[in-house]
Specification:
The complex is a heterodimer.
Chain A (H helix, E strand, L loop, with lengths): L1 H4 L1 H4 L2 H21 L3 H26 L3 H31 L13
Helix pairs in contact in A: 3-4, 4-5
Chain B lengths: L1 H21 L3 H21 L3 H25 L12 H22 L17 H10 L2 H22 L3
Helix pairs in contact in B: 1-2, 2-3
The chains are: A mainly alpha, B mainly alpha.
Chain lengths: 109, 162
């Protein structure tokens, strides 16, 4: 156990911040650059995971288990969100015949 | 030693995330995202959060990504027929994502690691997390079961043929 705990002495917190921010920005990039709704949805999952990673890193560096409990709840919400979102995407595909984001502009101002 | 594990896992997660965004075929995107999730589970392991590493593998790569694959195959989207956005939109997307990256990095980089209190070795263990979850966070835990029930009913209702 002691060897594993020494990770946080070897790798500084800044590295985890850098990694999480990079992953989050890649998720935002995927959200903006792609037109396939499923890829956009996967980018949201990537952003949630970047936040999870940062939260676990903060929790480990602070020695506080509450951050990890919140990560657990984020995973719960993500699972529910995916179930609903994919059902909505299936219905959109049934009704419109595609999952192109740019075709779904009825609510656009 | 652990430093190199961190570097390798970080390289895998960033590379797989970039490939996920830029892969033409949605199936390849899903597989690259699974790679990212596995490497994040590895990060959880070296951060001493063993329970979350297992949950990450079971829930994300086991349940969520299989659901994605299932929907892609159900809707027959596994072809490279996606029309792309115009180039100006792509450039704008890259610039704004880069700006967001810079702003978030600048706002987070001042956070400092406080010296750890004694006896916080096994905070990520199942035993400790279970204690916190079932004493302090019991009400949110029960509320999440209601959330799951409503999500289940909602997805059945949405996906049902009229």
């Amino acid at each position: 156990m002691n060897e594993i705990t020494s990770t946080i002495q070897v790798v500084p917190l800044e590295y985890y911040i850098f990694l999480s921010v990079t992953l989050f920005s890649i998720g935002v990039l995927g959200m903006l650059i792609r037109r396939n709704a499923i890829i956009a949805f996967m980018s949201i999952e990537l952003m949630l995971n970047a936040v999870n990673l940062l939260m676990v890193a903060f929790s480990a560096f602070r020695g506080d288990a509450k951050g990890q409990v919140f990560v657990f709840f984020i995973m719960v919400v993500a699972a529910a969100e995916v179930a609903i979102g994919l059902a909505i995407l299936t219905m959109i595909h049934h009704n419109r015949g595609s999952v192109d984001i740019n075709a779904l502009n009825k609510l656009k101002w | 030693m652990l430093e190199y594990v961190f570097y390798i896992l970080s390289a895998i997660s960033i590379a797989c995330a970039l490939l996920m965004v830029f892969a033409k075929n949605p199936i390849h995107s899903v597989l690259f995202l699974i790679g990212t999730f596995f490497s994040i589970a590895g990060h959880f392991v070296i951060l001493n959060a063993h329970f979350l590493a297992i949950v990450q593998i079971i829930v994300y790569t086991g349940a969520i990504m299989v659901l994605f694959l299932y929907v892609i195959m159900l809707l027959n989207l596994n072809k490279e027929s996606e029309s792309t956005k115009p180039n100006i939109v792509k450039v704008a997307a890259v610039v704004s994502a880069g700006l967001l990256f810079l702003v978030m990095l600048a706002s987070f980089k001042e956070s400092i690691a406080i010296p750890l209190p004694e006896g916080t070795d096994g905070i990520g263990s199942v035993k400790n997390l279970g204690k916190v979850l079932f004493s302090e966070y019991l009400l949110p835990f029960e509320a999440s079961s209601v959330l799951f029930l409503s999500a289940m009913a909602g997805s059945v209702l949405l996906a049902k043929k009229k």
